[in-house]
């Protein structure tokens, strides 16, 4: 690649000199944090962004500056989407199809983290149902709108290392609930979904990748006790010190969203397709050593193609649709 980026690169760094006029992008979760910044950066470079959010009034307030920053013909429209209710997901997909307008990029950004035990409107465990199954149905239902050359960016996390998916008990019907195990399962599912979506669509020129944005202070951590969060950071710093690395530092939101726009717009499609990216580069697979939450690396179970196919089949069974 002509230019390399890293953990401190921002969305504006990554998109410097990039003209997105004529491009159409769907970003989920545009009522706060990374989704808003992703939309802003893309619209500022000329893309027309369709932002999806559960609370449209909140999204309107959060994205006022996105419209103000739009340039070169870029803009923003909002559409209602509650990923925790498949009726809403399907209605959103139907509304997007009704316009008949294609997409060049879909950023599956919205999600929840470490929420208390609960269920979505359709009876799925909250994190697996919201983070994975909601996006699984939405993206597959609009896949026909993704034109050749387009990409899917699935927001994952280093938290995938907390747990592999459990295809026998995805809703914790028989397993004691742990909020971070549930989060890990859902983030592993986000990666595996990208792997299988990429396999199914790359022959028609549509690629998919999963990204880890890094540690950022956003609303995602709203369910976490501050003392618990600090204890986690203390543990991370102990691991980093053992590796001879400096202590943990939060990324800014523009730094956190940079890998999404890098993987979706700038990186060569063949380089990122079916892969896991972080800090604006493709991550290495790490199978044989301990890695802290903040260390780079993806676990092999999250990229295993057979595992990805099995999750796809299980997801179809759970949502009652075949794609």
List the helices and strands and how they pair.
Elements: H1 11-14, E1 24-28, H2 33-44, E2 48-53, H3 56-62, H4 64-69, E3 75-80, H5 86-99, E4 103-108, H6 126-141, E5 146-155, H7 179-201, E6 207-212, H8 226-242, H9 253-256, H10 258-266, H11 269-272, E7 276-278, E8 281-282, H12 305-319
Parallel strand pairs: 1-2, 1-4, 2-3, 4-5, 5-6, 6-7
Antiparallel strand pairs: 7-8
Question: What do these coordinates show?
Answer:
The protein has 323 residues and is α/β, with parallel strands linked by helices. It has a single domain, classed as Rossmann fold (3-Layer(aba) Sandwich). It has twelve helices and eight strands. It has helices spanning 11-14, 33-44, 56-62, 64-69, 86-99, 126-141, 179-201, 226-242, 253-256, 258-266, 269-272, 305-319, and strands at 24-28, 48-53, 75-80, 103-108, 146-155, 207-212, 276-278, 281-282. It has an eight-stranded mixed β-sheet with strand order 3-2-1-4-5-6-7-8, sandwiched between helices. Helix 5 packs parallel to helix 6, helix 6 (126-141) packs parallel to helix 7 and helix 7 crosses helix 12 (305-319). The model has no long low-confidence stretch (mean pLDDT 93).
């Amino acid at each position: 690649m002509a230019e390399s980026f890293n953990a401190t690169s921002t969305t504006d760094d990554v998109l410097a000199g990039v003209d997105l006029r004529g491009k159409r992008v769907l970003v989920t979760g545009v009522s706060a944090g990374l989704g808003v910044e992703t939309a802003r950066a893309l619209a500022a470079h000329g893309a027309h962004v369709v932002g999806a959010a559960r609370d449209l009034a909140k999204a309107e307030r959060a994205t006022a500056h996105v419209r103000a920053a739009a340039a070169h013909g870029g803009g923003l429209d909002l559409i209602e989407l509650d990923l925790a209710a498949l009726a809403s997901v399907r209605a959103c997909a139907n509304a997007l199809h009704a316009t008949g307008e294609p997409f060049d990029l879909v950023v599956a950004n919205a999600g929840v983290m470490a929420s208390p035990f609960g269920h979505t409107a359709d009876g799925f465990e909250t994190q697996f149902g919201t983070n994975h199954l909601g996006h699984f149905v939405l993206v597959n239902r609009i896949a026909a709108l993704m034109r050749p050359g387009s990409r899917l960016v699935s927001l994952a996390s280093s938290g995938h290392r907390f747990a592999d998916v459990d295809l026998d008990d995805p809703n914790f019907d028989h397993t004691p609930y742990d909020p971070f195990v549930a989060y890990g399962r859902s983030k592993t599912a986000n990666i595996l979904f990208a792997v299988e979506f990429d396999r199914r669509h790359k022959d028609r020129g549509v690629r998919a990748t999963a990204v880890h944005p890094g540690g950022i202070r956003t609303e995602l951590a709203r369910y976490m006790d501050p003392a618990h969060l600090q204890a986690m950071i203390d543990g991370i710093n102990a691991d980093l010190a053992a590796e001879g690395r400096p202590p943990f530092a939060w990324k800014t939101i523009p730094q956190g969203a940079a890998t999404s726009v890098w993987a979706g717009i700038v990186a060569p499609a063949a380089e990122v397709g079916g892969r896991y990216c972080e800090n604006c580069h493709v991550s290495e697979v790490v199978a044989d050593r301990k890695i802290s939450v903040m260390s780079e690396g993806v676990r092999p179970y999250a990229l295993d193609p057979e595992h990805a196919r099995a999750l796809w089949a299980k997801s179809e069974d759970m949502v009652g649709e075949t794609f």
